[in-house]
Amino acid sequence: MSATLIDGKSFAAKVREKVAVQVARLKDEHGVTPGLAVVLVGEDPASEVYVRNKGRQTLEAGMNSFEHKLPAETTEADLLDLIGRLNRDPAVHGILVQLPLPDHLDSDLVINSIDPAKDVDGFHVSNVGLLATGQKAMVPCTPLGCLMMLRDLYGSLSGLDAVVVGRSNIVGKPMAQLLLRDSCTVTIAHSRTKDLPAVCRRADILVAAVGRPGMIPGDWIRPGAAVIDVGINRIEHDGTRRLVGDVDFDSARHVAGAITPVPGGVGPMTIACLLANTLTACCRANGLCEPQGLTA
């Protein structure tokens, strides 16, 4: 048995295409152009590459891109002042502050200063609460991308047994909430879960989001299960650096029914869903119908 590969790169391209079509419709029919503002503080090389990719894909989707690159010594007051101005700017529908921030800045304070309606990362405490209570919220991009791929794979997720390994605020917890909302039976597992292999083996859907390379081997996976590997870990072997997931791909692919590779699985969906969230925020701000198939 060899698992079907869930091609996140191809899926993300289709999502971006759908977003671009809807953006063009908004322009033609309503004279509205979605706008995404990205704020980068400092000169972290990985963050700079990520922000550059976001800006390029935002423009390719027909949206307006507003980039604010601030020096590492930027004060908290100055950063909050910028966010306040973006909150009030009607041309900006989505605001993203690139993490991590320099140590002298309070990330929670900064994220919670963003207007929840423009919080396209879905990290604001209000959006977290809305998601947890089943109300309309901005949903974190990575879990949203995982959900889209699972819906495409299964159609309906109702009644499936899902296990999420990892309890982070960014992936694990919102992923569990989304699966629960789609009527899965959901277990959140973590490093202190008793008999973690047995918990994983009962899952129809196994989502790995722990940040530990190759933590989940093939013999922890139920035959035929869908495996969504959110992990992106850089390891070095024989002088060569490469990316691997939280799942041991070589052993898992012979057991799972479907699996996301690393790289090329969940990763490309994150920016695609950021664009989808910006489009959704723009529609909500203007009282327009939300795009079908691009929200949770």
From TrEMBL:
Its EC number is 1.5.1.5, 3.5.4.9. Keywords: Amino-acid biosynthesis, Histidine biosynthesis, Hydrolase, Methionine biosynthesis, Multifunctional enzyme, NADP, One-carbon metabolism, Oxidoreductase, Purine biosynthesis. It catalyses: (6R)-5,10-methenyltetrahydrofolate + H2O = (6R)-10-formyltetrahydrofolate + H(+); (6R)-5,10-methylene-5,6,7,8-tetrahydrofolate + NADP(+) = (6R)-5,10-methenyltetrahydrofolate + NADPH. Pfam families: THF_DHG_CYH, THF_DHG_CYH_C. NADP(+) binds at residues 166-168, 232. Residues 6-121 form the Tetrahydrofolate dehydrogenase/cyclohydrolase catalytic domain. InterPro entries: Aminoacid_DH-like_N_sf (IPR046346), NAD(P)-bd_dom_sf (IPR036291), THF_DH/CycHdrlase (IPR000672), THF_DH/CycHdrlase_cat_dom (IPR020630), THF_DH/CycHdrlase_CS (IPR020867), THF_DH/CycHdrlase_NAD-bd_dom (IPR020631). One of its GO terms (biological process) is purine nucleotide biosynthetic process. Pathway: One-carbon metabolism; tetrahydrofolate interconversion. Residues 140-284 form the Tetrahydrofolate dehydrogenase/cyclohydrolase NAD(P)-binding domain. GO terms for molecular function: methenyltetrahydrofolate cyclohydrolase activity; methylenetetrahydrofolate dehydrogenase (NADP+) activity. GO terms for cellular component: cytosol. Belongs to the tetrahydrofolate dehydrogenase/cyclohydrolase family. PANTHER family: C-1-TETRAHYDROFOLATE SYNTHASE, CYTOPLASMIC, C-1-TETRAHYDROFOLATE SYNTHASE, CYTOPLASMIC-RELATED. Homodimer. Catalyzes the oxidation of 5,10-methylenetetrahydrofolate to 5,10-methenyltetrahydrofolate and then the hydrolysis of 5,10-methenyltetrahydrofolate to 10-formyltetrahydrofolate. This is Bifunctional protein FolD. It comes from Celeribacter indicus.
